[in-house]
Structures are given as C-alpha cells and as structure tokens.
C-alpha cells in the first residue's frame, strides 16, 4: 500500500475539481478513490450552498465533511447534519441588498432551504443549471423589501456581473464596509459578500482538527480569489493552471488546469511519499 504524505487534501469545486461541462473527470474520480482507500482524507470546500454540493460529493463516494458557502456551513455528507452554521445579521443582509439594488445589480440572498433572486434572466438560468436548484424569484417587490418582511439572515449575498465589471463592483462595495463582512469573488462573473469570521481558511483548520491532521500535512487547492484563505492556511497551497493570476502569485501553481484533471495530478505528486 502506498504511504500517505499529505493526509488531508481540501479542494475547491468549480474551476478546480469540476470541468467546464459540470463533470468530474474519471481520472480525478479514480485518483480520489485510491487516495482515500489508502488512508488519505479528501474534502471539498466550495462557495456553493449545501443543496449545490451534497449530491455531487455523494456521487464521488465521499464521506465525512463538506465545507459550503465559503466555510460558513460545514455538513456531514452522509447524514446531511450541520456541524457549523453561521449567517450574516439581518441588518447587514438588508443593508447589502439595498446597496446592490442602488447599483442595479442582479443578486441572490441565501437562506438554508432556498435562495432568492431579484431578476429572472439568462444569467439566472445559467446559475440554476450549475448549482442544480431553482431560485425563488422575487418580482412583485424589491428583494430588500422581502428580506425585511421575512427577517432573513443570509449566509452570503452574491451579485452576478459581467467579467469586465467585476473589479468596479468590488470597488463600489468596498466603500460600504458592511459590518462583519468580507468581499470576494468566486468567478469572473460572481462577486460575494460573506461572513468575515468564516472562510475557506477557517474550514481547512476545522477539517484538519476534525480528521486529526496537522495543518502542515494539509493541501488546499483552488482557482479563484475566494480560495486565498485556504491557500494561506493549508500546509501546501496550490493553484491550478487556470487560476486567477492574483491567486497564482500567492500559491504553488501546477502545470495542469481543471480540464486536465489537475486534482489527480496533485494527488499523485503530493499525496503520497516518494517510493
């Protein structure tokens, strides 16, 4: 049996583990299965909510924990039991919604069972297809009014933008300094307002403690700026070749993209000790 080197590998999902067509390659599947069978721990950490990742993790045959919503939710894959659950305050949720409406943006608010959207457009259809769940469309009033009426405390707030508007939107939101929040991006078309106390970095630390693995024996792999806390916290932080250039500047960058089964290559190179 091969000897495990890094005992915990935590991977982003979209743009890292999964390909552009929404599938995980057979090479990645085989490598993950072999790594786990040999004693390694493999976990997914994603910006998706649980309803967009639990079934995908189960399809891969994973057990144990999965990190969702930038580390704000951690759940047991098999039972669906929540281990960590943290939301933004209602006041912060409402203030963020009102600002996004003033900017005229398409945005989503995330509750535990549903997410709500203020626009019914092609971008929403694309997003629904990606996460495998339909949004609740709020069209008879502003979404901020709905949030106020229902006293919603969102896990995160996501704005869908054109790639060329990403930096401009982040800059506009940075000036607001929403209480207890951080701003990040999980794709060129997605800007997110998230809980400042929870991130993919806190998720790596929690998972390492849960599995009894020293942080120096963990690997974090990602492709977007929201993966930076994970890259910085893990013992070995890796960016796939298709990653955001700012992230690549902070990480060890491998020569493979998500389309080239980068996770399988990383497992084989770093997951095991050399013979």
Describe this structure as you would to a colleague.
With 275 residues, this protein is of the alpha/beta class. It has 2 domains: 8-85 and 198-271, Rossmann fold (3-Layer(aba) Sandwich), CATH 3.40.50.1000; 90-195, 2-Layer Sandwich (Hypothetical Protein, Haloacid Dehalogenase-like Hydrolase, Chain: A, domain 2). The protein contains 10 helices and 14 strands. It has helices spanning 26-37, 54-59, 90-102, 122-131, 143-150, 166-174, 200-211, 228-233, 245-248, 262-271, and strands spanning 8-11, 41-44, 65-68, 73-76, 82-85, 106-110, 115-117, 136-137, 157-160, 181-187, 190-195, 218-222, 236-239, 252-253. The strands form 3 sheets. It has a 6-stranded mixed sheet with strand order 8-7-6-9-11-10, covered by helices on one side. Strand 6 and strand 7 form a beta hairpin. Helix 1 (26-37) runs parallel beside helix 10 and helix 3 runs antiparallel to helix 5 (143-150). The longest helix is centred in the middle third of the chain and has 13 residues, at 90-102. The protein is globular and about 60 Å long. The mean pLDDT is 95.
Please name the defining characteristics of this protein.
about 280 residues; Rossmann fold; Hypothetical Protein, Haloacid Dehalogenase-like Hydrolase, Chain: A, domain 2; 2 domains; 10 helices; globular
Q: What's the CATH architecture of the largest domain? A: 3-Layer(aba) Sandwich
Report low-confidence residues grouped into runs of 5 or more. Answer: none
Overall domain count:
2
The biggest sheet, with number of strands, parallel, antiparallel or mixed sense and barrel status, is: 6 strands, mixed
């Amino acid at each position: 049996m091969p000897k495990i080197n890094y005992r915990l590998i935590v991977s982003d999902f979209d743009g890292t583990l999964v390909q552009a067509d929404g599938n995980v390659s057979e090479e990645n599947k085989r490598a993950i299965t072999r790594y786990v069978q040999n004693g390694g721990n493999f976990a997914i950490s994603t910006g998706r909510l649980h309803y967009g990742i639990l079934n995908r993790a189960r399809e891969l045959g994973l057990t144990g924990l999965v990190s969702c919503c930038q580390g704000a939710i951690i759940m047991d894959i098999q039972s669906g039991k929540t281990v960590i659950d943290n939301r933004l305050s209602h006041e912060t949720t409402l203030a963020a919604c009102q600002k996004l409406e003033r900017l005229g943006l398409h945005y989503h608010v995330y509750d535990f069972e549903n997410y709500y959207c203020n626009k019914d457009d092609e971008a929403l259809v694309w997003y629904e297809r990606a996460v495998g769940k339909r949004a609740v469309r709020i069209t008879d009033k502003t979404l901020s009014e709905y949030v106020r009426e229902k006293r919603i405390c969102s896990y995160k707030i996501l704005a869908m933008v054109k790639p060329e508007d990403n930096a401009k939107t982040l800059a506009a939101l940075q000036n607001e300094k929403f209480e207890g929040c951080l701003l990040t991006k999980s794709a060129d078309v997605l800007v997110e307002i998230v809980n400042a106390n929870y991130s993919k970095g806190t998720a790596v630390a929690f998972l390492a403690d849960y599995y009894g693995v020293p942080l120096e024996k963990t690997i974090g792999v990602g492709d977007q700026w929201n993966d930076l806390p994970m890259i910085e916290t893990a013992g070995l932080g890796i960016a796939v070749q298709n990653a955001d250039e700012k992230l690549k500047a902070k990480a060890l960058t491998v020569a493979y993209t998500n389309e080239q089964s980068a996770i399988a290559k990383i497992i084989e190179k770093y997951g095991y000790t050399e013979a």
